[in-house]
Amino acid sequence: MSEALEKVSSNRAFEGEIIKYKFKSATLGGLSANFNLFIPPGASPTNKVPLLTYLAGLTCTEDNGAQKGAFLGPAASQGIAILFPDTSPRGAGIEGEDVDWDFGTGAGFYLNATNSKYAAYYNMYSHITLELPQIIETAGLPIDLKRQSVFGHSMGGHGALTLYLSSSTKQYRSASAFSPIANPTKCPWGEKAFSGYLQGGVEEAKEKYDATELISKSKDPVHILIDYASGTADNFYKQGQLLPENFLKAARDSGFDEFQVRVRSQEGYDHSYYFVSEKSFRSASTIDTGVVKISSFATDHIHFHANFLKA
Ligand SMILES: N[C@@H](CCC(=O)N[C@@H](CSC=O)C(=O)NCC(=O)O)C(=O)O
Known about the structure:
The protein contains 11 helices and 9 strands. It is an alpha/beta fold. The chain has a single domain (6-309), classed as Rossmann fold.
């Protein structure tokens, strides 16, 4: 059983509130875990709001998306709360967990470890799908947990897609991702993570933690949006760490059309949060010529989820 929440800080933002909490996490071996929660204006016990969970990438904490993602303004306008979890347990003290930036601390890969070396601490899958919603419920926060969706960036995009596609309880109504690691059993980051965290390595990961494998077996209708930077500016795309084309091909081969799985290639952007929080003037479809209005990719994704969270 996880212990009670402690409020670390609270800031007014977009007429709502962004709050940092910490608590002792049972899924993360009893370690102290942080998360940020944005609560939009107007949320109250009699007006509970839907929850969108944002999963960040390698080396990030619960702060990267909250501070750099440009999500809070559009979430405030849409009346959607955003949960920003951390990306791994912190301070487990496992030998080797702080050697590389793409494995261990800051690189939990949104899975439940089965290798006994990591299994007591590295359980980000349960932390996000079960423990954090339970903590929010127990604390009486004004969130309607029957309406949840999930999105993320890079490793967090992998997390968003796999949590969405693997959930037998259909916990999330929609998923979206910025530059996700879309076929991790076929890229160096994924191979390294799965070989380390999972007793059965990459083979074990195919069942539950690879979005391309999961979409190829999906039968139910899905609601997925992906934006990725397709040019030479995204080093990780160039290195073959992301492989969004594999995901797109598997989705189309399985019969999902562009209304169910929309994958948009965006030229010229790199892998940073400038991609997430900006949209170029070249994207004519988002320019309302009456009142010049340019939305960011972040806004697009919030609006995408609002379609399902507010239905
Ligand atoms: N330290 C690394 C670069 C790490 C990096 O770029 N992390 C990305 C996510 S990559 C995939 O999950 C990130 O989101 N960084 C945080 C940020 O605020 O930009 C290196 O040395 O290359």
